[in-house]
Amino acid sequence: MTEKASLPVRGIEPYQPAEGEEYMSEAQLAHFQAILEAWKKQLQEEVERTVSHMRDDANHYADPADRATQEEEFALELRTRDRERKLIRKIDKTMERIRKDDYGFCDQCGVEIGLRRLEARPTATLCVDCKTLEEIREKQRVA
């Protein structure tokens, strides 16, 4: 039984490179561009839904406990949307890298990041090895 790669967006199948296909070919770049555009659209729709939900559900409860619960729910939604807004900016930067033909290669060592890693995290800028080293260094700084 083969396991399917999990893409951040539904409806887009994992890329299957042709035998001998060059890494980051036009078809591969188009595939990742489609993933990024669909992901960005999905995130923007969530932001719009949240704004609409908060506008429609902004009740003025007389009970302080009910009001506090609603405010906490709104605060949690806003934190989530803030993370998504940051992700949208990262997606935009990644799409710019595709346009500049600078996508799919590690920022630190220059090796191929790899199709499967990019499908799991299309905004990745580091190969697995460099990302692992970065995380180890981060843990050492915190400790």
From TrEMBL:
Span of zinc fingers (dksA C4-type): 106-130
Binding, Zn(2+): 106, 109, 127, 130
Gene3D superfamilies (UniProt xref): DksA, coiled-coil domain (1.20.120.910)
Broad class of where this protein is predominantly found: cytoplasm
Compartment(s): Cytoplasm
Record keyword NADP present: no
Pfam families reported in the protein's UniProt record: DksA_N, zf-dskA_traR
SUPFAM superfamilies according to UniProt: DnaK suppressor protein DksA, alpha-hairpin domain, Glucocorticoid receptor-like (DNA-binding domain)
Family statement: Belongs to the DksA family.
PANTHER family for this protein: RNA POLYMERASE-BINDING TRANSCRIPTION FACTOR DKSA, RNA POLYMERASE-BINDING TRANSCRIPTION FACTOR DKSA-RELATED
Summary of the function given for this chain in its UniProt record: Transcription factor that acts by binding directly to the RNA polymerase (RNAP). Required for negative regulation of rRNA expression and positive regulation of several amino acid biosynthesis promoters. Also required for regulation of fis expression.
Name used for this protein in its record: RNA polymerase-binding transcription factor DksA
Species this protein is from: Spiribacter pallidus
